[in-house]
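To illustrate the input format used throughout this study, we show a single complete record. The first block contains the structure-token representation of the backbone; no residue identities are included at this stage. The design step must infer an amino acid for every position from geometry alone.
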């Protein structure tokens, strides 16, 4: 794979597959934070130290493969244009924090885009592994294997009492951040999600928007993740998260059933109005697009819309983001120009599906 190939496709290859409970759980992610032994963490390290780590990672892992994760492509942030960085953020291949770094940052990405290994973000190494649907256990097992593979060539900073040492105290211990991306439109429509979020936070979990900390829950998509790792085993963290996610899946299904029984006509009207907006708009903002895509996805999952696939909606969620629109246009666009192009691309894609 090359940078251009990562740019050309809105939807990552792994996203084309369906996993368990994929009508509600869009994806499962495992992230492991690691640091080189006896090297200052990125937040205080000298530029030369970080440059040495970049050089080492490129030399040892560029174009390497591990099991099914083929041809890991190494990209330096310094070599990537701002719009290209934004596309990588929109595809969840790098974090917004790494995108802001102009020097000493990098990433390894597998050709399936299922694995990305960020270099010199908040920690020296941050391994990200994605699975479609609700597959936290499978993702964790695969992440452990990748971690062991990296450790064959890297001595990680580790304390016998504390565990893995990281820049952020909340990551010390396992260095694990597990998360799921969930589509919860019925809980949002019935206004139950606002009451559930504080209860989830009290369990040591955190609810964020689609792009993590500080981001908005566009299109009724919420990211649920663990908050603390110190003193907990990886399995304990996963079990706690799985328990909450299972309850949310159950409550979302109940809310969908309630809507179909008590407000079926109003729900159907909302879904097809949103579909009509997407099919006919000439100008559309990103927030309205996300809201309409959420309604249409709900319509597909509940059987109201039968001729559009969920894969198309996953693709449009990314294709209509500001970075991807400008990458598609091959130039910087004003907000209004983005709104016009966004409407045009959505119409074109839905017409192809029809």
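Output of the design step:
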């Amino acid at each position: 794979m090359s940078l251009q190939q990562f740019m050309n496709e809105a939807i990552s290859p792994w996203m084309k597959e369906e996993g368990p409970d994929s009508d509600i759980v869009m994806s499962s992610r495992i992230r492991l934070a690691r640091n080189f032994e006896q090297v200052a963490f990125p937040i205080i390290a000298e530029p030369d130290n970080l440059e040495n780590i970049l050089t080492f990672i490129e030399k040892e892992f560029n174009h390497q493969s591990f099991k099914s994760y083929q041809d890991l492509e190494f990209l330096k942030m310094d070599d990537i244009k701002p719009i290209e960085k934004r596309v990588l953020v929109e595809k969840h291949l790098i974090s917004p924090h790494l995108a802001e770094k102009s020097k000493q940052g990098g990433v390894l990405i597998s050709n399936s885009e299922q694995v990305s290994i960020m270099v010199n973000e908040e920690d020296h190494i941050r391994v990200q592994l994605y699975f479609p649907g609700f597959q936290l256990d499978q993702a964790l097992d695969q992440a452990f294997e990748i971690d062991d593979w990296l450790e064959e060539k890297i001595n990680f900073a580790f304390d016998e009492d504390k565990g893995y040492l990281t820049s952020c105290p909340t990551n010390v211990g396992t260095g694990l951040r597990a998360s799921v991306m969930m589509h919860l439109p019925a809980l949002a429509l019935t206004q139950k999600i606002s009451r559930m979020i504080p209860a989830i936070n009290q369990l040591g979990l955190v609810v964020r928007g689609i792009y993590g900390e500080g981001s908005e829950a566009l299109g009724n998509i919420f990211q649920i993740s663990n908050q603390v790792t110190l003193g907990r085993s990886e399995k304990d963290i996963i079990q706690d998260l799985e328990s909450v996610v299972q309850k949310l899946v159950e409550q979302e299904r109940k809310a969908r059933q309630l809507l179909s029984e008590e407000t079926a006509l109003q729900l159907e009207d909302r879904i097809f109005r949103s579909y009509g907006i997407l099919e006919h708009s000439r100008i559309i903002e990103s927030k309205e697009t996300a809201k309409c895509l959420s309604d249409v996805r709900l319509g597909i999952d509940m059987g109201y819309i039968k001729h559009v696939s969920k894969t198309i909606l996953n693709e449009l969620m990314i294709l209509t983001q500001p970075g991807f629109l400008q990458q598609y246009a091959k130039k910087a666009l004003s907000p209004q120009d983005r709104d016009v192009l966004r409407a045009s691309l959505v119409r074109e894609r839905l017409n192809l599906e029809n």
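Structural context for interpreting the output: The mean pLDDT is 90. Residues 42 and 122 are 6 Å apart (CA to CA).
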